């Protein structure tokens, strides 16, 4: 059975600057895969290319065995891919409910489906139901992140692209967001997660890719990446190495 998403030898440039230099990855149906990397590594560029927001210079992106190259962004949403962007990017002068309705713009003639999707969002994020008439610009950072994810879910995607969902959030909210990510996946949505919090990302993902300077430098299961010394030193704060050192000295 073919993977749900396949990225092959993908190249994306901003003018003369190569942002992605021939990267390849795949994601299986029902899986959470994570992409780790420092700022400027190309993580957001990867998600935007998959979403159709950026043109690609070479390579191939396929979803459910169908080529996405050259397909406009709205059509990619219709095919079952939705993105929650870095920095939330909610529409601050619109209410919570109006933001959610915008997430369902591809389904305007399917009122029952929109209502069902909204109830799913409200069950995942009860605070959004309480604040449905509130302007989104008045929400806390954590609530805006919930709204951004909820808006992406309004199209009932097969694949959800999450770009830095924990960025700028307090630890207790990070824990809550990742618990919800696991629940979204448990309900049947596959997830490609870009995240700087490698500890949290590897705790929910089954597969991981390390992106450095536009190239995939390391690939493996979450367990393999957690035990990889290079990954530990660069992305896990050396915590695992320190723990191992303490254990060996006792």
Q: Can you describe what's shown?
A:
With 250 residues, the chain is an alpha/beta fold. The chain has a domain at 1-80 and 157-166 and 187-250: Rossmann fold (3-Layer(aba) Sandwich). Helices cover 40% and strands 24% of the residues. It has eleven helices and ten strands. α3 (96-103) runs parallel beside α6.
Features:
single chain; alpha/beta; Rossmann fold; six-stranded mixed β-sheet
Task: Characterize the overall form.
Answer: globular
What can be said about the biggest beta sheet? Answer: 6 strands, mixed
Count every beta strand, where a strand is a DSSP E run of 2 or more residues: 10
In percent, how much strand structure appears in the residues?
Answer: 15-25%
According to CATH, the fold-level topology of the domain at 1-80 and 157-166 and 187-250 is Rossmann fold
Radius of gyration: 18 Å
The helix content is 40-55%
Secondary-structure topology with pairs:
Layout: E1 5-14, E2 17-27, E3 32-36, H1 43-50, E4 58-63, E5 66-67, H2 73-79, E6 81-84, H3 96-103, H4 111-124, H5 126-130, H6 141-153, E7 159-163, H7 171-186, E8 190-194, H8 198-204, E9 207-212, E10 215-221, H9 222-226, H10 229-235, H11 239-249
Parallel strand pairs: 3-8, 3-9, 6-7, 7-8
Antiparallel strand pairs: 1-2, 1-4, 4-5, 9-10
Question: Could you give a short description of this structure?
Answer:
This protein has helices at residues 43-50, 73-79, 96-103, 111-124, 126-130, 141-153, 171-186, 198-204, 222-226, 229-235, 239-249; strands spanning 5-14, 17-27, 32-36, 58-63, 66-67, 81-84, 159-163, 190-194, 207-212, 215-221. The protein has a 6-stranded mixed sheet, sandwiched between helices. Strands 2-1-4-5 form a 4-stranded antiparallel sheet, with helices on one face.
